[in-house]
Amino acid sequence: MRRLVLPYEEEALESIESGEGVILSGVLYVGRDQVHKRLSSIISEGGPLPFDFSGNGIYYMGPSPAPPGFPLGAAGPTTSMRMDPFSPLLISKGLRLMVGKGPRSKAVQDAIREYKGLYLQAYGGCGALYSSCIRKAETIAYPELGPEALLRLEIEDFPAFCMIDSRGRLYNG
Amino acid sequence: MDAEERIVSALIKAIRKLPDDVETLILEAAESEEGRGGALALDAIVRNIGCAARTGLPLCQDTGMFWCLASIGRGSKVSIGALEELIASACMRAAREGYYRKSVVSDPIYSRENTRTNLPPVISYECVDGDGVALSFLLKGFGSENCSSVRMLNPTAGEDGVVSAVVDMMEKAGGKPCPPVFLGVGVGGTMDRAAFLSKKAFFSSEGNHHLESRILSAVNELGIGAGGLGGNHTALAVSVLSAPTHIAGLPVALTVNCWADRKCTIRISEEEL
After folding, report:
1. What contacts A48, CB < 8 A, 6 or more positions away?
2. A12 domain residue, yes or no
3. Is the terminal CB of chain B with fewer CB neighbours within 10 Å at N or C?
4. What strands lie across the sheet with B181-189, from one edge to the other?
5. Which CATH class is domain B1-16+58-141+263-273?
6. Which domain range does residue A106 map to?
7. Chain B nearest C-alpha distance from A63 (Å)
């Protein structure tokens, strides 16, 4: 089992290999379908990004509402494939670490290889478990998107699995 | 507790705690999984079940869309209008009081505006023997529902055709529906009847056990494994329901439920209605 502290050091990302279990701690940003659409528009228009891509990762997730006393409700991964049309552009602009669930397109895999990225899978449906790994959650952009808003999380001992490593190698059972 | 309270409380419990038989199958799978990736995913799933029980948080943030089968006794005097109102009101309260994620949009193509209530529920009605009403709910998550499908087979396709249709649908689904999955299979009727039966099957134990175990083995041979990470547990249970059909057809529908096979049944007596 490997540990990855976020924001990540360059060599830390490249030392993880597909098929390895990875435990994440530190800062992780959250965005899914609508955030990806907006980040892509910002990049095409040359505007300022809502967070620094360098050293940071994005988690594909839309939480359930937080009951009193919890930073977030259930917070497991959503299907990564829906972000595939946007990911190569974001990777090319420095967003090299992605956390979601399920397979990625060939274009995403190629972009990961070219820019030495990393795609980790979080365990699907484990919303309560992932919520318990979140120490703090704040909305940093697009609150109007409700459960799809862009969040900044502080996480501890967040379990994941490397599906595509920085050399573009895919885990396939 | 009146009927509405009982429905609300069953629906809130259902997103936090799996039915005992479902939980047992998951625990058994976790103990016997041989694939390294699948074992890691099952370990996370087992820890998640414990975590939801301790915290009262939903098992999964996709608390699903309400699917309800109202089985009305032929001897019942219940008004269908009142029943529809009871179901909608209980669903709305459960979503609010149970901290469900608001996951339903009113217009599927254009505005996709969130209804903010998780209404409307998808309701089907059927007549059964006896009095009173039984309400069977699925909390249908869409990671798995997006892998559900109907095939219209050739009438001569037979049992082999049914098995290979389901296996093919699951092969295409791969790791997307959050395996290990629970499968409902509807066979016969018309296209929509087969689809309905594939959901009703989750509440039935009267299916064709020979066909169910053939499908279960064939799907597990795919080796997709828990979380799609490889292993011998891709599906944990299969339920099949069949119905009369036309001489020219053999409809086969598959509903895929993720490992969080969330469901509940509430029986309401004639006096409570």
Report:
1. A42
2. no
3. N
4. B149-153, B250-257, B181-189, B235-245
5. alpha beta
6. 2-6+20-164
7. 5
CA angle (B140 as vertex; B139, B145 as ends), nearest 5: 170
Contact B253, B185 (CB under 8 A): yes
Residue A32 within a domain: yes
Q: Are the beta carbons of B230 and A63 separated by less than 8 Å? A: no
Strand partners, A141: A150
Q: Which of B40, B57, B65, B99 to mutate to test the interface with A (most CBs of A within 10 A)?
A: B57
Q: Is the peptide bond before A7 cis (omega within 30 degrees of 0)?
A: yes
The one-digit pLDDT tens for each residue of chain B (273 residues) are 799 999 999 999 999 999 999 999 999 999 999 999 999 999 999 999 999 999 999 999 999 999 999 999 999 999 999 999 999 999 999 999 999 999 999 999 998 889 999 999 999 999 999 999 999 999 999 999 999 999 999 999 999 999 999 999 999 999 999 999 999 999 999 999 999 999 999 999 888 999 999 999 999 999 999 999 999 999 999 999 999 999 999 999 999 999 999 999 999 999 998
Type and span of the H or E element at B50: helix B36-55
- CATH number of the domain residue A157 falls in: 3.20.130.10
| ipTM rounded to 2 decimals | 0.93
The partner residue sitting opposite B59, judged by closest CB among A128, A159, A161, is A128
Residues counted in chain A: 173
Q: Residue A164 is encoded by which pair of tokens?
A: 């595509």
Is residue B105 within 8 angstroms of chain A, CB to CB?
A: no
Neighbours of B122 (CB within 10 A): 13
Q: No. of H helices and E strands in chain A? A: 5, 7
